[in-house]
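User: Predict the complex.
Assistant: Input components as received:
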Amino acid sequence: MPLTTSLAHGPSNRVLSFAALLLIMLGLGSVHLLIRDEFADARRLREEAQRIVEARRHLSELLTLHVDAETGVRGFVLTGQEVFLAPYRGASERRETIIEALRSEISEKSLSSLKKLRRLSDLKLANAAANVRDVRDGRLADAQKRIEDGGGKELMDEIRAEIARLDAAEVAFLQAFEEASENKRRNVERLVLLLLVGIAAILIAVTGLLVRTIGQRRTALTDARRVAEQERAMFDGAVDGMLLLDGSGRIMLANASIERMFGYSAKELAGSNNMVLMAEPVAEEQSLAWLATVGRAGVAGAGRRQEFIGKRADGSVFETEVAISQFGEDGNSRFVAAIRDITDRKRAERMKNEFVSTVSHELRTPLTSIGGSLALLAGGAAGQLDEKAARLVTIAHNNCERLIRLINDLLDIEKIESGKMSFDMRKLTLGPLIQRTVNANRQFAHDLGVGLEIGLPPWPQCVNGDPDRIEQVLTNLISNAIKFSPAGETVYVTTQQDGSKVRVEVCDRGSGVPGEFRDRIFSKFAQADSSDTRSRGGTGLGLAIAREIVTRQGGSVGFEDREGGGSIFWFELPMLQDKPAIVPPEQCDLPLLLHLDNDLDCLSVVASAFAGRASLVSASSMQEARAALVAEPKIGGCIVDVAMGTESGLDLIPELRAVAPGLPVVLFTALDEDYPEAGVDAALVKSKTSIETLVETTMALVTRAARGPR
Amino acid sequence: MTRILYVDDEPDIREIAELALSLDPGLDVRSAASGAEALEIVGTWMPDLVLLDVMMPGLDGPSTLARLRESPATSQVPVVFITARAQTQEMQNFATLDARGVIAKPFDPMTLAAQVRAFLA
């Protein structure tokens, strides 16, 4: 959906924009630094140039100074007029000023040249001074002779040459500096251009991103609008009454069905509490507390349903069902309530119930008469019937009973499916219940030539359940087992304990459950072979009813193949038991026995049966038994159960033998099997042995072992 | 002879019940077609046990029982309800109605007398 796509791009777009902004800032900063640097360079170049111009001006002035002084002195020599000496007179002073200025103006390399120039200048001025002196002292010829010798001219040429060198050096320096500056400027230009291009590229990318984001946002907005319109259309067009409630249960929106159903206009309802639609309004806090338990839309548990009596604008009432879902975040949550008028459904339910009840009564009444009459006839109440008549009456009677069973089962299924089957749960002892149920089925078993036996432990096994319903389940399993057992076989009813559960098993020697039927054996009208229904007289509902009854009481049902043929059908219920205190006994003079059994009731019954004869350390797990063997070195005998959940008590025996080879070990187990390999002193089966026998057997072995050598 | 009053609005079932109970030679059986008729009979013929159908037009089983308990003469007479199994579960409170027990309908006529005897014991 585009909406979610654009939302998913949101964060990455933000990061990208931020990075772009950062890059642009960096780029602009760099440009700024480069340009500032470039300006500083230009300023420096300008200053250098100015300095060099000044230096060149001073050099030129120095040359002029000397030339003028030379010319002046020559004029004086030729004419003897003092006026010619004017340029010469200021030259010495002026020369100092110019050389001082040049010292700071010329580049360092030229300082030696300046020194040389100064020396030449000194010589030149000294030469001029000698000429002036000679003229003044009347030695004109000496002065003329000095001029003619050309010494002054030579000096002058040297000065000119030196000045020209200095000038050339400054010009070269300026040129080199200009060149370096030019190179750098070109580099900076290139760099700035590059940066600007980069920034432009980033700007283009950012613009593109922006355009895309805006596009996506527009699409998302369009989608959201379409979804909103779609939902509004669903809301308005729903057959159910739809309400939108705010967090405090006030009506924000109501659809046309609500208007039709309750007779209010949506405008009238807007802003009022939803309670206005209820015949029996509850306190606002109560209503809010209930709303708070409503599940979120799109989450399991949403659409919570409740029935309530609605009240129309005209005050009339009707039955409704509401389903509520919550959405929005905490603090700003809202509710959508779908309200359905269930008047018709309720009426139909009542009619169906009445129909079922009536039909069952109306069917039962004639069946009672038919069945009763046939039973009396078959029983000889109307005189002895001849063989053929008796056979026909029996057939009619059996089928009449089957019809009655079918009606009863159908009524049970109807009750279970409509959730109307109630259970009278109480603490009950399984033994007497099993005994009673088995006794009730003895005649049936006898008629089919099948034996029926019970194997129960001698201590009570208590469960929490409805005795009538458990009896119904057990009757069903037992009668099935009898029906499917060949004549001459025996059906066993036993109990097994596994941790916190007790399992009632019904074992038959029938043909077993065929493979393709195993998955649906507990479904309604499931029978391995439809001809079975007729031959066995079942309704096909018994096991479905049994499963429902047991699971509704917190138990489970199942079946497994029986070794040697046949099946074991079982149901399990949670056991009620108090864990006996397993503490090391205090009476030290009595023999100490270890009793391992995972059935806590059995542990406590056995412990009390040994009272006064022996002290028992009771262990309900293999782990506890091993710990007890280590902790209690004086143990003089062991009573061991075989079925220890996933483990076998038999595994403990080699360990016992390793520690104490002569220790008497008695197996006391529900499993009626041979234990030739077990290496035990006695094996007693719980259902066949009284507790007294266990005590006597164990005590005899313990006494004998204590007397004999260990 | 132990007197048994069987109350049921269905004539066929009444007849079968009478026949079934009379299989026990120690029982003296009479029947009534309604709660009202039962109340009339107990005025002249005091039974040792009343078998009372639950669903009857007019006075139904529980109402008839209540009326029996109102009269000092019949306040102690043992009453056993006869009702369809589907209804026995809804009648868990039959003990609070002061009935001695419930026999499920359809009953087995061959063992009905024995069941009645068990309630009398």
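The radius of gyration of chain B is 13 Å.
Let me know if you want any component modeled separately.
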